Amino acid sequence: MSTDYEMALAYIHGRPRIKKETTQRRINELLQRLGHPERQIKTVHVVGTNGKGSVVAYLQQLLMESGLLVGAFISPFIVRFNERIQINQVPIPDQKLVQLVQRVRPVMAELDAEDPELGPSEFELITALMYLYFHEQGVQIALVEAGIGGRSDSTNVADQALMTIITTIGMDHMAILGDTLTKIATDKAGMIREDRPTVTGPLPNEANQIVQQVATNRHSKLLQLRHQFDYQRLNAQCFSFQDQFGNIDRVTTKMIGDFEMEDAAVAIAAFRALAQQTALMPVTQTKTVIQSAIPKTQWAGRLEVVRDRPRTLIDGAHNVPAVRRLLETLDQFPERQFNVVLAVLADKQYQEMVALLRSDPRINLYLTEFAGTGQRGSADFSTPMFADLDYIADWKTAITVAQRRTSQKDLTLITGSLLFIATVRAWFFANDKN
């Protein structure tokens, strides 16, 4: 017999994943009938191709360390669905999720009956559940990670936005957002709010021009990495930070790599701007919070060590820009060889991802598959195109083979789609318990 929680999850996942009309009409109608909880929530919106999860993790820790009750809306989850809606790093309790689904379900039925196209999608339903929960629990600031776009995203609603963060802009979700950087940047810049600051990570010139133009048109103060703020790498897990408020000499991070420092720098810049904007604390006091909070921040699935012998890491490099970032991070380990296990969803640019990985002479690549989700299947690596590479259909076997071939000084790295990484991570931790 299914539990109430399992039935609630089945209902959520049973909603359509994508609707033809890419506007906020459905989510706004749903929120209106729920009493507009979003209008009571102060939010920081986080959009971008990669880096959203890390930036949210760093900023959440910084705001919690400042004494605030902080909501975070993230995707995808790594272990359990409830992680997608959390307060002070605690996922929404099962019973609370059940109660909220029971509350929203009759409203959804009304909308479905009135107009099939007005019936909200899965992500729109989850977004509404998030706003209801955060309002009910008295969250002081919510960090809201966009789903795919910006202008067209379900989170782009009339909440009390304090700031927009744009982490990176690259080629991903082209079928929905467009097939050029200009089109993708135009959509993501749609999240920039009137008279509210915008913080960005490194953006390609083509995308940056769009962001700057939209920010100017909307009177949004722009804070950009390498311009209004910056960082310098001191070693693999330590950097210094500079902005208009002064320097912070040494900031350490648990997570490895220049891109983690980049994401941390974006979060620090956002935090300092929020401190000034909301009178949270004098900006001069933020240094102590930053040096305490950043080293505590963890982000599951980002170059995370899941086994020591042999040294085995997982990393959710789920698209082409993320693979490029991963390869640049691996350059910080020049003496090592890497046995890399890859599984990717079929709707990604998996051929280019494979080409990038196989171009690195230090990488021995193992291609595999996983179950995927709903209509999104795993890329088929059994085709002649990949005949010269190691293909092992069963991902558990692929990982075992890669680990057996990894020497003590080298690394096994499991990467690809975030859904795959979540599955692998759960498998490792289950084996540890057994």
Uncertain residue segments: none
What do the pLDDT scores average to? 91
| N-C termini distance | 26 Å
Count of DSSP H/I helices:
14
Oligomer: single chain
Strand order of the largest sheet: 4-3-2-5-1-6-7-8
CATH architecture of the largest domain: 3-Layer(aba) Sandwich
Structural domain tally: 2
Helix content: 25-40%
Largest sheet: 8 strands, mixed
What is the CATH top level name of the largest domain? Alpha Beta
Within CATH, the superfamily of the largest domain carries the name Mur-like, catalytic domain
* Total beta strands: 17
Q: What is the beta-strand fraction?
A: 15-25%
| Global outline | globular
> For the CA atoms, what is the radius of gyration?
21 Å
Structural class: alpha/beta
Q: If you consult CATH, what is the topology of the largest domain? A: UDP-N-acetylmuramoyl-L-alanine:D-glutamate ligase
Would you summarize the structure shown here?
The protein contains 14 helices and 17 strands.
Describe this structure in words.
Residues 301-417 form the Mur ligase C-terminal domain. Its EC number is 6.3.2.17. Residues 47-270 form the Mur ligase central domain. With 434 residues, the chain is α/β, with parallel strands linked by helices. 39% of the residues lie in helices and 20% in strands. The strands form three sheets. Strands 4-3-2-5-1-6-7-8 form an eight-stranded mixed β-sheet, with helices on both faces. It has a six-stranded mixed β-sheet with strand order 12-13-17-14-15-16, with helices on both faces. Strands 9-10-11 form a three-stranded antiparallel β-sheet, covered by helices on one side. It is globular and about 60 Å long. The mean pLDDT is 91.
